[in-house]
Hints:
By secondary structure, this protein is α/β, with parallel strands linked by helices. Helix content is 23%, strand content 20%.
Amino acid sequence: MAAVFSLSLLPRTTLAADSAPPPNIVVILADDQGYADLGCFGAKGIQTPNLDRMAREGVRFTDFYVAQGVCSASRTALLTGCYPNRVGILDAQSPASKIGLGPGEKTIADVLKARGYATAIYGKWHLGHRPASLPTRHGFDEYFGLPYSNDMVPDRENKRNYPPLPLYDGETVIVKYPDLSQLTTQYTEHAVKFIRKNKNKPFFLYVPHTMPHVPLAVSSKFKGKSQRGLYGDVIEELDWSVGQILAALKENGLDERTLVMYTSDNGPWLSYGDHGGSAGNLREGKATTWEGGVREPFVARWPGHIPAGTVCHEPAMTIDLLPTFVALAGAKTPELPIDGKDIWPLLSGQPNAKSPHEAYYFYWQRNLQAVRAGRWKLHLPHAYRTLKGAPGNGGKAGAYEEKRTDIALYDLVDDPGETTDVAAKHPDVVKELQALAEKERAELGDSATGQKGSGVRSPAIN
Length: 462
């Protein structure tokens, strides 16, 4: 297998042994933003000067992934370092859901708080809205934001008997039906205040924006500003938010002490047309395991530690953030098994650094649908959704239809758009990726084969 993929494990790197204090960590997460919605990733009609600056002054990953192309599952993976199937949180939880993180699970906030970090989340949570599942019960000192998606509101036409959309401050609902056009500004203001308040101690700041999830909304200062309509306006306001956070770090003398990262929770919601993002030349979008659904824009900046202008083409995933932060902060790895690995050698541009993973696995709900190892991605037989005709516009969604793929192998170096199946030319690669898939089924299960998985843990039921 090593001869096929040439993947090497690298020694864990930690700065905790240095005399300097552990770094501040800022993770900014967009919602449903497409791969090609940043200037440094080829955006058209959208200006993102602050994110482009992050790429120029830090690192840009071309092959960065989320674990599943949907809200709750994706955020679970980011915060726990686990594939969502391991911890039992899948799909996008509705206001009727009673599921939350299990009591033994540890988030990034948990492990860093134990290391002495101040912790805060300003934005969308979506890992359970019952009291025992709120962010303040999972390592966060402060919380201001929505418990789930902004479209989860009462809808008589579609027979959704949901409660009014709540805005939380801590564990208290302070507003029902908040003004969506003000959320990006409010999250940003909270983030800036948090930075100022905690400038003399290490902190973890998580800003999972509500936007650009539909229904789109933007403040008056950005309305009509872009050349890409309302969607572009929303992205340009998110870029402004990044600029405000970077400015606050500089003003408080924290530039060289702070690692800042930006990515999205999944690919674009293509059925919304002009209210959705662009995956560029990648195939499909949100709620699929094709590249357009799970490959995301990713930039990171840490002056003095990440060389300016670095571009990384090695695959990496959100599950790798927690173990990387553990290493950098000298924190304790969670006792329960996790799936991520330390990717600091990739982030810091170390010569010849390779992915520490043998492979990455892509589930849709409980169905294992794809495996990536090195340059290769194998799709296993599965159904997927694709647009049926033209997308919607003006906030109205177009229709999807179901299609199927048989086993198909793609060379993502030469064909990132997954257009040409090369399985017949590389039967040895297909066989080895199928063997990896079988190992993962034994560990995390697969609804297609009826396997439950020996490493699956139960979520909390509140």
